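Hey, sorry to bother you again with one of my protein questions. I've been puzzling over a protein and I'd love to understand its fold better. Take your time with it, there's no hurry, and the full record follows here:
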Amino acid sequence: MSKSAAYNIEDNVGFLLAKAYRKGYAIFRDRLQGYGITPPQFSLLAFLWKQDGLSQAEISEKSHIDRATMVGLIDRLEKEGLVRRLKDISDRRTWRIRLTEKGRSLEGELCSIADEVAGIFTINLSEREIRNLKNILLKIRR
């Protein structure tokens, strides 16, 4: 690229990923608003719906959310009565995060919303393009 050529930020992979993320996040945030849940809180709940009783550290690792931020997310979900912290009986330094009945009861409804949002977000993509996109994103994430 010559010095006089302007950098085309709109063609930058990172810029495009960030714009796509913001669009998807905004759609999902709006759909979850009536439940008082944010997309990061949904993610935490989704990990627990898959495997209840994970430690704070395990959820942090799986979600790639730093531990300090994770504590705040869990605090808010606990305040809403969706999860509770329990001491790990084999390691008293570890907190296990367990779904409450209220937290468990939201799984079907919130997962339907997540699927709906994914459909809206990828409406212009074919099934093959969606599979390819997922594969590419998994490669980038590694």
In short: The chain has seven helices and two strands. The chain has one domain: 13-141. The radius of gyration is 18 Å.
